[in-house]
Write a structure and sequence with these properties.
Layout lengths: L5 E5 L9 H15 L3 E5 L10 H5 L4 E4 L15 H14 L4 E5 L1 H8 L7 E4 L12 H13 E6 L2 H10 L7 E3 L24 E6 L8 H4 L2 H7 L4 E6 L12 H11 L3 E5 L3 H9 L3 E4 L13 H8 L4 E3 L3 H7 L10 H13 L1 H15 L4 H15 L14 E7 L6 H9 L3 E7 L8 H10 L2 E5 L3 H7 L7 E6 L19 E4 L2 H11 L6 E3 L6 H4 L10 E5 L8 H12 L6 E5 L7 H4 L2 H16 L7 E4 L5 H4 L5 E4 L8 H9 L2 E4 L18 H13 L3 H15 L2 H13 L4 H5 L5
Parallel strand pairs: 1-2, 1-4, 2-3, 4-5, 5-6, 6-7, 8-9, 8-11, 9-10, 11-12, 13-14, 13-15, 15-16, 16-17, 17-18, 19-20, 19-22, 20-21, 22-23
Length: 737
C-alpha cells in the first residue's frame, strides 16, 4: 500500500487576525485533509487567540507547527520570510514533504531558491495587477518563482491570464484555485420578508477595515437609511484595522466609527463558523469598494460566502462580478447613494430581492469545499501519478533518457514522466537538429534503461548506433522527418518502437521507410483539456483564430480568404493570428518563394477593404489558452499536417474547429469539421453563427476532444510504451553497465 501524500503549508499570514489570507490557510488545509493528505501547517506568529488555529487542529491528518513553543524559531516573532523558509526546510528534512503550499510574494521568492524548489505550489495575489505594473525586476522574480513551482495557484481566471501573458514559465503551470466557501455547521435561518418589516433590516460586513474597502463610509449607512425612514443595523466583523501612511488619523476615525456610529454593531474578530452564523442572519451583505478596486484581479471570498449563506451582496459592477452574478444582477452599486437606493428598492420590491438571492446562491455552488476538494484531488492525481505495476519490484528507478533539439510538443509528457514513481529522467538537449555534445549523449546512452528520441532526426541515427544490449529505444516521428535523407541511416533493428501521431503518418512512415509495421504505433498528441477549458469572452463567435502561420504551407492566405467571404456578409467577423512570422525564422525567410508569398499576404491586408483592419497579430508564446478565450473558431487551412494541434486546442477551449481537407485530417478529426474549400468553410461558419447554433456546436467540439486526446490518457499510453517488453534485467533494474 502506498503511503499518503504529505504537505507543508505556510501562508505568511498571522492566524490571530481574521482576514482573507488567514481564511485561505484554513481552506487550503481543509481541502488537503479531505484529499487524504497529511498536512503540517507552520505558524507565522505566536498564538494569541485560538479561534482560527483550533479548527485546523481538529482536522484529520493535520498538525499545527508552532515554531515558538517547539524551539524552531530563532529571534523575534513574527517569522521573517528567510526564517520561515529555513524552518520549512528543517521540517522537510525531518519528514520529506511531497508538496509545499506557500503564499506571499516575499516568502515564495525566498522558497524558490531553496531545497523546496520543484515541489512548491505557490499562491500569489500580491503581484502586479496590470501589464503596465510589471517592471523588469518583477518579471525576473516571477519567472524564477514559476520555474521553481510545480503549480502556480491563481485565484481568478483574469489573474491566470495576466500571469501567463507576462511570465512564459507560468504557462502550463498556472491552475485555477478559486476562493473556497466552507460548509456551515449550523442550519441556515429563515428570514422574515423585507416588505413591511417592523424590525431593523440587517446588513453585514466581514473582513479587514481599510480605505479602499469603503469600511468608513459603510458606518454611515444606518444614519442615511434612517433619513429614508428605514431602520437598519450594520454588523461589522473583524479586528484588522489598517494603518494608512498617507492619512495617519484614518485608523483612529475608523475605530471611533465602529464603536460609536448609530446602528453599527462591531463584533471584533470571531471564529469563522461563528462569523458565518452571524452573517447568515443578515438580509444583505456589503462588499462595496472604492472605484480603484474595480480593476482588481482578486475575487472576494466574502461575496461567495454571502451567496452560500443566502445573503445577497451589494457590490461594484465589474466584468468579474458580471461573469459571476450576471449582467442583470440588481444590486450592483457605485457609491453610497446607490447603496441606499438599492436597499430602498429591495425593501419595496420583493422581486428584486428574490432575483438577487437566486443569482447569489447559484454563484456560490462552484466554490463549495466539496467542489474545491474535488478540483484539488485532480491536481494531486496529475502531480503524483500511480506507479506502473511493471516497476513495482525494481531494485532502483527505471532510467529514462530523452534526446531532442525541441521539446515543445513533449513538455507535459516530460512533466508526467518526471512525476511517475519508479522513473528517473535525464535529458540530452541537442543544440540544433544536427548538433549535440557527444560526451553528454554517450553518458546518457551508458546510463539509461530506455531512451526516447523526440523527433526522428539525426538523434535517432546516433542512438541507433550506440544502443546497448537490453536497452530500449523509442523514437517519435512527426512529419518533416520523412522528407529528410537521414532516415536511411537509422539502424531500425536497434529501434524498439516508432511512435507516430496519426494513423495517416503511421501508414506513410511504413511505406516510405520500409520499417517493420509491428514496430510502428500511433499515440496522438495530447491536449491539456483542463488548461484550455476557460470561460469565453462575449462575441467570440465572430472571431476566427489561426495558431502558427509559418511557413506558408500553413496557408494563411486561405484563412484570409475565409475572413473576406465572411465579412462580405457581416462586418463583425475578425481574424486573430497567434504566431511567429516568416521573417522570425531564418531558414524560412531565406527562401524567395516564402518572401514572395508573405509580401502578397500583407499586400492584401493593406489593399483589400474586405479584410483591412480586421486582422490582429499576437505574439508567439505559451499563453495560448488565455488567448483562445477571445476566439470562437480555430482554422486549419494547411496544405499538409502530421496532426495539427491547433484545432484540438481550440476545441478544448470551447471554440469550433474548421479544417480544409489536408491529407489525413479525417483520421484525426470528425469529418463534420472538415470543409471542401474556403467558400464552403465560410458558409458553414456563417450559417452556424446566424442560426444561433454556435454554443451547442462548440460544446459538442469540446466533448469530442475530451474523449479523443486527453492528456492523462496520452501520458498513460506513453508509460505503457516505456515499460512494455522490458528485458528481464531492465525490468528488475539490474541491467549491466
Amino acid at each position: 500500500m502506498t503511503r499518503p501524500l504529505t504537505a507543508l503549508v505556510y501562508g505568511d499570514v498571522n492566524l490571530n487576525i481574521l482576514d482573507g489570507s488567514a481564511i485561505w490557510v484554513q481552506s487550503m488545509t481543509e481541502a488537503l485533509s479531505r484529499c487524504g493528505v497529511s498536512v503540517r501547517v507552520l505558524l507565522k506568529a505566536p498564538i494569541e487567540t485560538p479561534r482560527l488555529v483550533d479548527p485546523l487542529r481538529s482536522l484529520t491528518g493535520v498538525r499545527v507547527v508552532d515554531p515558538f513553543t517547539e524551539s524552531l524559531a530563532v529571534g523575534r516573532s513574527p517569522l521573517s520570510a528567510p526564517e520561515a523558509v529555513r524552518i520549512l526546510e528543517s521540517l522537510d528534512a525531518s519528514e520529506p514533504a511531497d508538496l509545499v503550499v506557500v503564499r506571499g510574494l516575499r516568502l515564495v521568492t525566498a522558497a524558490s531558491s531553496s531545497s523546496l524548489a520543484g515541489r512548491l505550489w505557490t499562491y500569489l495575489t500580491d503581484i502586479p495587477q496590470s501589464p503596465l505594473e510589471f517592471t523588469p525586476e518583477a518579471l525576473e522574480q516571477l519567472e524564477a518563482i514559476a520555474e521553481a513551482s510545480r503549480f502556480m495557484l491563481c485565484q481568478t481566471e483574469e489573474l491566470r491570464d495576466l500571469l501567463e501573458a507576462m511570465v512564459p514559465a507560468a504557462c502550463g503551470r498556472s491552475v485555477l484555485w478559486s476562493p473556497v466557501v466552507p460548509e456551515p455547521t449550523f442550519a441556515l435561518p429563515t428570514r422574515p420578508a423585507l416588505e413591511g418589516r417592523t424590525t431593523p433590516i440587517q446588513l453585514v460586513y466581514t473582513g479587514k477595515f481599510a480605505p479602499l474597502w469603503n469600511t468608513l463610509p459603510m458606518t454611515r449607512l444606518p444614519a442615511l437609511l434612517a433619513e429614508q425612514g428605514i431602520d437598519a443595523q450594520l454588523h461589522m466583523i473583524g479586528d484588522k484595522i489598517h494603518d494608512v501612511p498617507d492619512d495617519p488619523d484614518w485608523s483612529r476615525r475608523m475605530r471611533e466609527a465602529l464603536e460609536a456610529s448609530p446602528g453599527v454593531v462591531w463584533h471584533g474578530g470571531m471564529p469563522r463558523q461563528a462569523a458565518m452564523e452571524l452573517t447568515a442572519a443578515a438580509d444583505l451583505g456589503l462588499s462595496w469598494r472604492a472605484p480603484q478596486m474595480d480593476a482588481s484581479l482578486e475575487l472576494s471570498t466574502k461575496v461567495l460566502e454571502f451567496g452560500a449563506l443566502g445573503v445577497p451582496a451589494l457590490l461594484n459592477r465589474t466584468p468579474m462580478h458580471e461573469h459571476l452574478l450576471g449582467e442583470d444582477y440588481p444590486l450592483f452599486v457605485a457609491d453610497e447613494n446607490d447603496v441606499v437606493a438599492a436597499i430602498v428598492q429591495v425593501m419595496t420590491q420583493p422581486s428584486v430581492y428574490a432575483a438577487a438571492l437566486t443569482a447569489a446562491t447559484a454563484s456560490a455552488e462552484a466554490f463549495s469545499m466539496v467542489a474545491s476538494a474535488d478540483r484539488l484531488a485532480g491536481l494531486l492525481a496529475r502531480a503524483f501519478p500511480s506507479e506502473p505495476a511493471a516497476l513495482a519490484d525494481r531494485d532502483r528507478p527505471l532510467r529514462v533518457g530523452v534526446a531532442s533539439h525541441d521539446l515543445k510538443f513533449f513538455s507535459r509528457l516530460l512533466d508526467h514522466l518526471r512525476s511517475v514513481p519508479g522513473v528517473e529522467v535525464r535529458l540530452d538537449p541537442w543544440s540544433s537538429l544536427t548538433t549535440h555534445d557527444e560526451e553528454v549523449s554517450k553518458d546518457l546512452a551508458e546510463w539509461a534503461d530506455v531512451i526516447i528520441c523526440e523527433w526522428a532526426g539525426p538523434n535517432i541515427v546516433w542512438y541507433s548506433r550506440h544502443k546497448r544490449p537490453g536497452q530500449r529505444l523509442i523514437v517519435r516521428l512527426h512529419r518533416f522527418e520523412l522528407d529528410a535523407g537521414w532516415l536511411s541511416d537509422v539502424r531500425i533493428d536497434a529501434v524498439d518502437q516508432v511512435v507516430c501521431v496519426s494513423p495517416f503518418y503511421a501508414q506513410l512512415t511504413a511505406e516510405r521507410t520500409g520499417w517493420p509495421v509491428d514496430r510502428i504505433v500511433v499515440i496522438p498528441n495530447w491536449v491539456d483539456v483542463a488548461q484550455f477549458a476557460r470561460p469565453k469572452l462575449p462575441g467570440v463567435e465572430f472571431t476566427l483564430g489561426m495558431i502558427g502561420i509559418s511557413p506558408m504551407r500553413k496557408r494563411p492566405d486561405l484563412g484570409l480568404e475565409v475572413l473576406s467571404l465572411l465579412r462580405r456578409r457581416d462586418r463583425r467577423y475578425r481574424l486573430a493570428v497567434k504566431s511567429k512570422l516568416p521573417w522570425d525564422y531564418w531558414w524560412i525567410w531565406r527562401k524567395p518563394e516564402e518572401r514572395a508569398d508573405t509580401e502578397a499576404l500583407f499586400a492584401r491586408l493593406h489593399d483589400d477593404p474586405s479584410v483591412r483592419g480586421a486582422v490582429s497579430f499576437d505574439g508567439f508564446g505559451g499563453d495560448v489558452p488565455a488567448w483562445l478565450r477571445r476566439v470562437g473558431w480555430v482554422l486549419s487551412t494547411s496544405d499538409d499536417e502530421s496532426f495539427h494541434l491547433a484545432p484540438a486546442e481550440g476545441m478544448a477551449s470551447g471554440a469550433v474547429p474548421a479544417l480544409l481537407p489536408w491529407p489525413g485530417a479525417d483520421t484525426i478529426y470528425d469529418t463534420r469539421w472538415i470543409h471542401a474549400d474556403p467558400t464552403t468553410m465560410a458558409a458553414a461558419i456563417h450559417d452556424t453563427v446566424a442560426s444561433g447554433a454556435w454554443d451547442a456546436t462548440a460544446r459538442e467540439a469540446q466533448r469530442q476532444v475530451a474523449a479523443s486526446f486527453p492528456l492523462d490518457a496520452v501520458c498513460d499510453e506513453w508509460v505503457r510504451v516505456l515499460v512494455d517488453n522490458l528485458s528481464p534485467e531492465t525490468a528488475r533494474g539490474t541491467l549491466a553497465r
